[in-house]
């Protein structure tokens, strides 16, 4: 599932491609991927202009010039491609937005969605999200206040979108690995040094993953050479060798989520 680095990578690339461009055609192939009747969706989206694209947590918000927003959550298996008709992947397309001869294809939206909302509806929909961990406002002092008197295992809290925005299964494991902390540890048991390690690991892992275009290897457009270069240290590497201590990476289920870690160097 795309997480903060993947969605921020998408945002930056799509902002370059779509900002101030008009939507010239709308195609809905799966009505369950949207939240209103197709005719209403098309009426409000067609001939509108993309003013700018914003990311909040794992969502993208396509702000239109008619005070409406297209709220995207790709969920598991979702991705996008931007290009001409002859360039599109040989995959089922749930929604297509056209910008002249170029199109934005939404693929794999079986669990994900592209909802049409007003600005105020979008704000309400996302009002319970926690702080964004890559902003300047996310200081160590703020992080200390967030975890003060909080209980819960690291894995569970890191993927809790009301606690922090944008972290999911992959990067929660990578963060715990870099911090040398077991994902089964409880927040309340961390000392000051461990809290500091966790904070700096959050910032480093997400920044590094974004710099490498995230871990999803589907290019956003033809010639996209910057997407999908992040290589995990533990996530999805069960049975592999830890690059830090040589122990075997194991997988366990924590709160119904697959979790990968190294017992040799995570304490």
Automatic annotation (TrEMBL):
Coiled-coil regions, chain positions: none
Catalytic activity: Hydrolysis of DNA containing ring-opened 7-methylguanine residues, releasing 2,6-diamino-4-hydroxy-5-(N-methyl)formamidopyrimidine
Keywords of this entry: DNA damage, DNA repair, DNA-binding, Glycosidase, Hydrolase, Lyase, Metal-binding, Multifunctional enzyme, Zinc, Zinc-finger
GO MF term set: 8-oxo-7,8-dihydroguanine DNA N-glycosylase activity; damaged DNA binding; DNA-(apurinic or apyrimidinic site) endonuclease activity; lyase activity; zinc ion binding
SUPFAM superfamilies cross-referenced by the UniProt entry: Glucocorticoid receptor-like (DNA-binding domain) (SSF57716), N-terminal domain of MutM-like DNA repair proteins (SSF81624), S13-like H2TH domain (SSF46946)
Organism phylogeny: Bacteria, Bacillati, Bacillota, Bacilli, Bacillales
InterPro entries per the UniProt record, alphabetical: FPG_cat, FPG_N, H2TH_FPG, Ribosomal_uS13-like_H2TH, Znf_DNA_glyclase/AP_lyase
PROSITE patterns: FPG_CAT, ZF_FPG_2
Protein name: DNA-(Apurinic or apyrimidinic site) lyase
Top-level taxon of origin: Bacteria
GO BP term (any one): base-excision repair
Family listed: Belongs to the FPG family.
Residue stretches making up the FPG-type domain: 233-267
